[in-house]
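COURSE: Structural Biology Practicum
ASSIGNMENT: Worksheet 4, Part C
STUDENT ID: 0417
INSTRUCTIONS: Below are two proteins. For each, the amino acid sequence is given first, followed by its structure token string. Answer the questions at the end about the second protein only.

PROTEIN I
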Amino acid sequence: MSASPVATEVGAPKSASSRLRSIVGGSVGNLVEWYDWYVYSAFSLYFAKSFFPPANQTVQLLNAAAVFAVGFLMRPAGGWLMGRYADRHGRRAALTLSVLLMCGGSLLIAVTPSYAKIGMIAPAMLVLARLLQGLSVGGEYGASATYLSEMAGKTHRGFWSSFQYVTLIMGQLLALAMLLLLQRTMAPAELESWGWRIPFIVGAALAVVAVAMRRGLEETSAFEKDRASRPPQSAAATARGLMAHPRAVLTVVGLTAGGTVAFYTFTTYAQKFLVNTAGFSKSDATYINAISLLVYMMLQPAIGALSDRIGRRPVLTAFGVLGTLGTIPLLTALEGARTIPQALTLLILALIAVSGYTAINAVVKAELFPTSIRALGVGFPYAVAVSVFGGTAEYFALWFKNMGHERWFYWYVTGCILASLLVYATMPETRDNTHMDE
């Protein structure tokens, strides 16, 4: 990589080395945010008994999944408020604020007493904590996607922006690594009683470190140039600016729907599916999930680089076709898997297909909007779509299972991916027709 100036590329820093430092710095904060977010899902098998009344495992997991979905309700608010904040005050300021909110949510979960001690106040506090974290993540996605896309140069924008999902998946892996560590160092009774609080305390502490790192980030050239050329916009002007791009907004919603359902099905819900449906032990399910996510993480830059060569739309379309044709047979096979190699192979196959969405969805969305509303345009419609589809995926899966019709969920996932495939097939190629180079 050359260290020569790249000032001719709008949104790139002055040198390749400073661009790399900025991308790494922004990505580390993203990792901490998503660790905090996914610790909830990774440890819900253990803390569900602490926050909810006694019931069978599926019902308790259903309650925990409902709170997980509630956290998604705040993501549109976070997408709007933090997106507008990022477009007014800078990407760096928004990224720092989002980490602070995540820190507060994690700390609240860590210190909340159990249902046995304070009754219904316990799940109420859990809901409050997830609302704070939902607000944080809703703002994190748009600000992070915008920051990485603006920092990346035109030639390798898909490659560099893919690191948003590299660090997102790494956050999941760290959550699972924490789970594996505690599973091997604590008795199950201790883990269910109080050990599950440890990862939330760690998450709150890491968020403080991430705040310090993000305060030292370089602001993007694209934002600085845009801020110098126009006065700050009012809320009404911001809304009008977003409404001036209706096709881009609808494209974000449409391309996200199937991708986010597939992502949450084969990452966060997969662990519970392996335990609750396929019959694996909790530790084996965690191991399978962790190894598949490690492979998945390493795929992201390769798929991002591929999109720089062949375009974004062919990569998205490949995910849509594979997901539409393969979801039902793959989940059916996973349901009957009885060995670790079988389950691991099936999950990796699924995640190879999902990589066609996750590796490039951030850059595609950023390329759809001008600088003045980019963080808002990326974050808000994405947050709406991920709240409706991603946040409810696990709940629907457990709901169908509780009714005795688990395979209806397989058809639901397939239908969502098919709907997004129609968007991929008709959307413009954003690599070559982008607002990023204006």
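PROTEIN II
(use this one for the questions)
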Amino acid sequence: MIKQIPLGTQGFITSEQGLGMMSVGITMGKRDLYGKMNNVSNKGVAELISRAIKAGVTHFDTAQIYTNLSGMMLGSWFPTSNSAEKRMKLGLSLNRGKYQLATKIMKSGKKKDVKEMCYRSLKAMGIECIDLYYVHRIDPKIPIEVTMEAMNELIAEGKIKYVGLSEASAKTIHRAHAICPLTCVQMEWSLYSRELEDEIVPLCAELGIGIVAYAPMGRGLLADASLDPHKMSRMDFRKMGGVGYAVKEDERNLAKSLETLAEQKNVPLGTLSLAWVHKKGRDALDGAGVVPIPGTGNPNHMEENAKAVALSYTLNDEDMLAIETCVPRKAMENLPRYGGALGERVFTKENNISILEWKE
């Protein structure tokens, strides 16, 4: 049931659901940022990639920042031997021609850095061209036009095919798209995170830019109603990263309410939550395309998540209303999606909009 669809209007074709690779890159020992055990050996990641492709999930979304925590704490954004990019190399080599690969530049928006880090990613993953290359966070010190010029040069060199932004404001999307046509914008989108629906989604529909939805199950909180946030480790990213909705009072009641609805439909909670994102995005984007990328390092979880695609095509307006009644948008409004320095570079707090205007 998972189809290959156009994402954006620049010619990119990919699976209508992808796989986020953060869990195989950012690790604490053998556990990911949410405390889950994963097999992140090269062979383990290769199995994950191969089984995903067999399930119809061919879009793999990684990033240069997805590396072990010790490297991050030392300030290294380079693809180390413990990065997701490196760990994916074997799986990619075994499945050439069967996938679409996306990665993201994090270090800076300077033209030299954007290009140099692209070359490093290519080497780390053992490939010659990146299908989709994103700006992971907007650099407030560099006009977005400079960054987009670097993207145009990489396209001309045959190093990348398509370009995206992650966590960008509407104005920045407009400015970037004028220099280098964007294929997609990656944003957090779930029943717990809906602020992009006000400006970003309508703009992307207008410009023919697709959306890649990360954390589509509310960082796992909309996949398991039995989770107890009070018992999460202090190193769990939902606490450590300042995810506001993860610690909101009565948040578990929302998840349990939705779980009751899922039980009535005889589907898991996470499958229904994820199906909502598919349906919401298809309806709102007017053909520009939405690709949710639930992240996991567990092949079994990946295969379970893949079932959400078929379910999404069965949801009608009554179903969507029932889902949104269980988890009303207003319940999570004005809550930070990240805390501290992490929160300063998401699109709602972006500060490069008017400070650095492009000059010919």
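ANSWER KEY EXCERPT:
Q1: The radius of gyration is 19 Å.
Q2: The longest helix spans residues 269-285.
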